[in-house]
Amino acid sequence: MTHPITPPPELLKQWEDDWFNERENVDVLLTQAFQAGADQELEACMDWLANARNHSLSWNEATNFSANLCAARRPKPPSLKEQALAELAEWENVMDIAPDSPIRRALEQLDD
User: Fold this and answer.
1) Distances from the Cα of 8 to the Cαs of 12, 14, 61, in angstroms?
2) DSSP H or E run through 28
3) pLDDT given at position 62
4) Consecutive 10-residue runs of the chain (112 residues): their mean pLDDT?
């Protein structure tokens, strides 16, 4: 199954209008175009997996693989809590901060 990675005409028109009317700079438009292409690529992968029965995968295997593929291709950015803990870990190596410090314990108790 072939999926062309081309933006729909409406999206091209929107980007063109944004560029010529100076509503967006080229970096933003290129990033949007890159993301749109990546989304189309991911959709093509998902379509293939939806037809997994034709590729000798069981439906359960395809469904699990599909979820894992989405997670791998579109990972969630680290939460604020994860970012804070990572930064604290860096500081623990530089300064004399105990691994069981109140700051670490407080951060670990926060919801993600």
Assistant:
1) 6, 10, 32
2) helix 26-50
3) 65
4) 69 86 83 88 79 65 73 81 91 83 89 82
Nearest residue to 92 (alpha-carbon basis) of 83, 103, 78: 103
Q: Write down the residue that tokens 């804070």 correspond to.
A: 84
| DSSP state for residue 68 in the 8-state scheme | H
What is the C-alpha to C-alpha distance for residues 23 and 15, in angstroms, rounded to an integer?
9
| Measured distance CA(24)–CA(40) in Å, rounded | 22
Q: What are phi and psi of 23, to 5 degrees?
A: -85, -20
HEC string for 69-82: HHHHHCCCCCCHHH
Per-residue CA distances from 69 to 45, 75, 76, 95 (Å): 9, 10, 13, 40
pTM of structure: 0.45
Distance separating alpha carbons of residues 108 and 21, to the nearest angstrom: 47
